């Protein structure tokens, strides 16, 4: 597999290869050694969005970063309903009986579906900026019909430009904005042309989560996403709620020091008193 394009924030993790899933393959990159953590990127992005986590977490964790189906260099066709099985396929390929899972935005949707269906496999769950319309009435608009029409017309330049101005793509650091624009420039819209249902995550599913959960957002994320995180933090039995300061929706890139510290503290086993 060809190594991912270098970026300006840090060295890329090492390409591992491709994992076979239903309908195709998913490329994955790995960085570090230690307890396994699989990280799931958001919409219009790819595994490179986790570059800011490599420097801060790879000393203590084995970070596994796939391109989700329909994204990046994945050949598996877009289908959100299959992505939980994709995560399990990655874990099984790498020999992870149990692992922690981190998801941001649409990656958080997948992470929550994994937790609902395969919760016994998870040592911990981190979701950042998760959309949870079953827990909090939706107060946010993403005009997917507009973006789908632009993709169908082949006007990817306009699609990328309009999406880059959406509140969810606003960043608070120049480094974060440079990284996101670099990744967005490669977005090809193929998931818009093959829409799929979104896995449901009802209130009762949140109440049954048995693993530790860290529900967080950036302090400058949209009000709705922040409320979703707050409510998940109260409904899931072993949940904590946290807002990352000086960060928007893409909190992992806006304030990587605080984001990484929160994950490291959450996933590091506590020594007995």
User: Terminal Cα separation, in Å?
Assistant: 47 Å
Instruction: Give the SSE order as H and E letters.
Output: EEEHEHEHEHHHHHEHEHH
* Rg over alpha carbons: 17 Å
Q: What kind of assembly state do the chains in view correspond to?
A: single chain
Nearest-integer average pLDDT: 93
Task: Describe, in plain words, how this protein is organized in 3D.
The protein has helices spanning 51-57, 83-94, 106-118, 144-152, 156-164, 174-184, 190-193, 203-207, 223-235, 251-254, 256-267; strands at residues 14-21, 24-31, 35-40, 61-66, 99-104, 122-128, 213-218, 239-244. It has 273 residues and is of the alpha/beta class. The chain has an eight-stranded mixed β-sheet, sandwiched between helices. Helix 2 crosses helix 3 (106-118). The longest helix is centred in the middle third of the chain and has 13 residues, at 106-118. Residues 1-11 have low confidence and may be disordered.
